[in-house]
Each structure stands twice: as C-alpha cells, then as structure tokens.
Design goal:
This protein has about 550 residues and is an alpha/beta fold. It is built from eleven helices and 23 strands. The strands form four sheets. It has a nine-stranded mixed beta sheet with strand order 8-7-10-9-6-11-12-13-14. A seven-stranded mixed beta sheet has the order 19-18-17-20-21-23-22, sandwiched between helices. It has a five-stranded mixed barrel with strand order 1-2-3-5-4. The two termini are about 30 Å apart. Keywords: Methyltransferase, S-adenosyl-L-methionine, Transferase.
Length: about 550
C-alpha cells in the first residue's frame, strides 16, 4: 500500500501559490469600496466628496479613519474624503488615528504604521493584558468580543463574494436558506490554548513605538529595560527580539505557574544559564514550550514542560526541574536538543527529564497521546465543537458503507473521529511524524479501518487515487496556502458526491471554492460542485484567525 501510494506523488518542484499576499489583504478592502461603504454613526457629519485621484506618498503622515478589518487583522483605513485604502496594523474599526505611510503596494493600496490614536474605536474595551498592544499575539483584545466575531463574519462574507464570486444575496445569515451561516463563537475567550511556546533572548525588548521628531521625521525606537536577558514572545516582525512575558492569559493557569517559576529561577547567575544568541550562535536555552492535556481517568490537567536547548546538559536544567516538579499538574519534563543555528523548537534528540514522555487529551470520545512535538489542535474545547460540525457536515449514513478520503489529515484527528461510522478512512499528509502519530492514535483507540499514507498533495501525479476506492466523502483541511491546482483538477475529475472543505484561511478557501464551483477557464476546467453551506468558527479569540467549514455537493 505504502509503495503504491508513494508512486502517486511526482518529484516535481512545488509551484508557487496562485495568489500573493496583496490580493489576500485587499479582499476585504475591496468590499469596503464606495459601493459597499462601512457603516458610520448617524451623528457623524457627512464626509466630503471622495477625492478619487488622491495618492499618498511614502513617509507621509496622515489622519486616517479605520472602517473595518482585513486579512491578518489589519485595519482597513482611509483619509477622509478619499477612496484610497491604507492597511494599518493595530487600527480597529471606528478609530481615528495618526499614521505614517510605509509602503505603496503597486499603486493599489498602501501599508501604514500607526503612530497614535486620535479618537478611540467603536466597541472599545480595556485589554486585560498589559502587553496586548506590543505582543502581537492578541492584537484585538481591546475590541469587544461581540465586535470581533462580527468583523470576522464580515471578512468571510466579503471574501466569498469578491474572491469566490458567489451571489451576495445568498450570503445573508438571517435567511434560513443562506449559504453563509452565523459564526460560531468561542465560549472561553481566555485560557483556551493548550500549547504556548516562549523564546529565550539576550535582550529584554519591551516595546516598539513610533514617535514624531523635528521636521516631521518619524523614528523607529526600541525601548529596552537595561541589557537583561528575556523569556517571552517574539516581538512582531523580529526573529531576534523577545518581549519579556511574566504571564499569558491565553494558556492554562497551571502553565502560567510553570512560566512564573522559570522566570524567577533561570536568571539566577549562580545557575550559569544563558539564552541562545541567534546572531553569535552561542548560549544554552532556546525555547520553553508548555503543553496542557487531561488525565483520561480523572479529567485533571496534565502539563508537559519542554526545554529546547543547544546541547544536552541536564545538570544545568536540574535546578529548574526540581522547582517545576513541585507543581502537581506537571507530569512530564522533556529536553529537545537542537544543535542547528535555526530557530525551530523541534530537536534532533529528545530526552525525558521527569515523568512520562507524553500527555493525553480527549477529543470527540477518542484518546490522543501528545508528545513534545506532536501536532494537536491548540484549542481543545473549540476543536471539539469544530469536529462535531465537521461530522454533521459530512452527512455520513452511519451504516458503515462509505469511503472517506481525509486530505491533509495531520495526526488523523478528523478522520479518526469519523472512522467508526465509515467503511474505511484513507488519510494523506506530507509530514512523516504526523503520519506516525496518526497510526499510533488509531491503534490507541482500537480503530482498524483507517489507513494513513505520507505524501505531498502538492505533487500528485496521474496515479494518485488508484490505490484506494472512489471516495464517497472527501475531507480537505489544507494549510494556509490552500490547495494546489493539481489537487483541484483531481477533485474535479474524481467527482466525489460530497466535499467538506475545512479552512484556516478564508481568502484561499474562497479561491478554491470558486475553482470547484465555477471552474478555471484558463486551465479548461469546468466546475461541478454547488456550495451548500459555509460555517465560520472562531477558534482563537483576540486574533485575526478564522476557521471555516464548507460543504460542497456534486451538481
């Protein structure tokens, strides 16, 4: 089986995606054109007539009004009276701000850097994390959660209309037969992540700010608290600067306890611990990863701590291990050794310093073992909601007669949750470690009707599909670039009765849905599917990320 499957993937070099970043960013910006203006308060005076010929200059300082959110959470902004779009990180809908033009993108739009707020945005709330404005991990904390999901829903709608070319009249969630369903919110908007990765740094970088100097020059300034070492998250846009983090409201409370103990211990000069310097390639500590699972018998939290170091010196970590193990939830302490100069947290060697090498978690009634480097959905509770919706969308008969093809299967979580109602599940994934985990998870749960194969779905050839029966249902859960044209073509040829497309990027999702439903004219491909439903799911509150479950049925 493995040999036949491997032959279905050609060695051709992967082709670049069919879009570029600018198109994704403009998808929502296009929706906020004069034909689709953003709502404004009724008390505001009418804006002056649009200056359609207006074109900003690089480094120009402007007063902007933010009208909405685009891809990656960037604010869609305009100068009053102008139709020209500027995308500004940190700007939120309804906010008036001062910004400097940083880049002009082929004359279509510009990117701007926020200098300061002139008037606060609509739905403003106080961000509970003092680092929210600087960290970049929770860039919409100061926007009320109801407003966050409203804007995410709007982004999906406009992408489906502008990129997917679907009828906007069928995108109204208030209609019972509408394609676009209401967004599914997240019940827990803090403490929802089961995994956080922190980095050690040689400089305690506190914040990035922009300030006006004489002659209207704007100078980028880094504020540092002395030359102290740091442990925290990378500053947005920097691989070598780390924002010192004492606690994180996204991770579990036991994980916060671990972080606090490490912070108060590792800086002791007597321990001889040094952070890795990414420029000089010296130092010991690279990353601190904290994962939270559940004890299957008691439901109590299980915490794994993973130190990523440049070499194996367990005696240096012993003082940290002795203190961390006093936290009752900690059941595993691992040491991944990564001798490369890169910034990855995956080690070439792995050692167990305390306890067991894995923790466990439950998802849709199945048990999963999670190692230090395993892929697993980082919001367990919302993943349970997501997988329930996927199961309902798959529309299995339940008589065990159907073949499921699980594309981009990862560690097999989706396919395994459906396997007991199917005849057989075939999963494909490019990452060999994920395939190994999928096979382990199948065995752990006593599932024998699931086959997992390693292969690159961007490099399939004419033999792909010959090693398994024609699928009744295809689950496709690609990463952010979406599906390659080779796979789109194969899907249009195989004509499975139903496709459930699970997307973490609504821009590439809308593009792929357009291809499957409307075809690709320049490739002489005819679409043969009808888009039945799209369900947006908020997996990560306070971030711009949106998950979508899309159901397509053969015409």
């Amino acid at each position: 089986m493995a040999t036949a499957a491997a032959a279905a993937f050609s060695p051709l070099r992967r082709r670049l995606p069919l879009h570029h970043r600018g198109r994704r960013l403009l998808a929502v910006a296009a929706a906020l054109s004069p034909e689709h203006p953003a709502p404004t308060p009724t008390t505001s005076p009418p804006p002056p007539p649009p200056r359609k010929g207006y074109f900003p200059k690089r480094n120009e300082v402007l007063e902007l009004t933010c009208e909405g959110l685009a891809f990656k959470g960037k604010g869609v902004c305009r100068v009053d009276g102008s139709t020209f779009v500027l995308l500004c990180d940190g700007a939120l809908p309804g906010e008036r701000l001062l910004a400097r033009v940083r880049r002009i993108r082929r004359g279509a739009f510009a990117e701007a850097a926020k200098l300061r707020t002139l008037e606060p945005h609509l739905d403003a709330v106080d961000a509970p994390c003092p680092l929210a404005a600087d960290c970049g991990g929770c860039k919409t904390q100061s926007l009320a959660y109801a407003a966050q999901i409203r804007h995410k829903h709007l982004q999906v709608r406009e992408l489906l209309v502008n990129f997917g070319k679907f009828d906007p009249r069928k995108m109204e969630s208030s209609e019972p037969d509408a394609i676009l369903k209401p967004i599914v919110p997240c019940d827990e908007i803090f403490r929802y992540r089961n995994k956080m990765e922190f980095s050690f740094g040689t400089k305690r970088w506190m914040q990035r700010e922009w300030k006006e100097e004489k002659d209207d020059e704007v100078v980028k300034e880094e504020k540092a608290e002395g030359d102290g070492y740091s442990l925290g998250l990378h500053a947005p846009g920097f691989f070598d600067k780390v924002l010192h983090v004492e606690k994180c409201l996204l991770q579990s409370e036991p994980a916060d306890k671990v972080l606090a103990i490490v912070q108060e211990t590792w800086l002791d000069p007597a321990l001889g611990l040094t952070p890795y310097d990414v420029h000089k390639h010296v130092g010991f500590l690279k990353h601190l990863m904290i994962r939270t699972g559940r004890n299957i018998d008691t439901g109590a939290p299980e915490v794994m701590v993973n130190f990523v170091t440049s070499c194996y010196k367990p005696e240096l970590l012993e003082p940290l291990v002795n203190k961390i193990t006093k936290i009752p939830e900690v059941v595993s302490i691992m040491n991944n050794v990564n001798t490369s100069v890169g910034n990855t947290s995956v080690g070439e060697e792995e050692y167990t310093l305390y306890g067991k090498p894995t923790i466990t978690e439950m998802l849709r009634g199945l048990t999963f073992q999670i190692s230090a480097n395993s892929f697993f959905q980082t919001n367990t509770k919302q993943a349970d909601v997501l997988y329930k919706l996927i199961g309902e969308s798959a529309g299995l008969k339940g008589d065990g007669s159907e073949i499921i093809l699980d594309l981009f299967c990862g560690t097999g979580t989706i396919g395994l949750t459906l396997a007991r109602r199917a005849k057989h599940v075939y999963g494909y994934e490019v990452v060999p470690e994920a395939i190994a985990d999928a096979k382990k998870n199948a065995k752990l749960n006593g599932i024998s009707n699931a086959t997992f194969v390693q292969g690159d779905l961007n490099k399939i050839n004419e033999t792909f599909g010959k090693e398994f029966p024609k699928p009744d249902i295809i689950i496709s859960d690609p990463n952010r670039p979406g599906m390659h044209m080779k796979l789109i073509k194969w899907l249009l040829e195989v004509k499975a009765p139903r496709i459930v497309y699970v997307s973490c990027n609504p821009a590439t999702c809308a593009r792929d849905l357009d291809y499957l439903c409307h075809g690709v004219e320049d490739k002489d491909l005819k679409g043969c599917y009808e888009l039945k439903t799209v369900i947006p799911v908020d997996m990560f509150p306070h971030t711009p990320h949106i998950e979508c479950i899309c159901v397509l049925e053969l015409c």
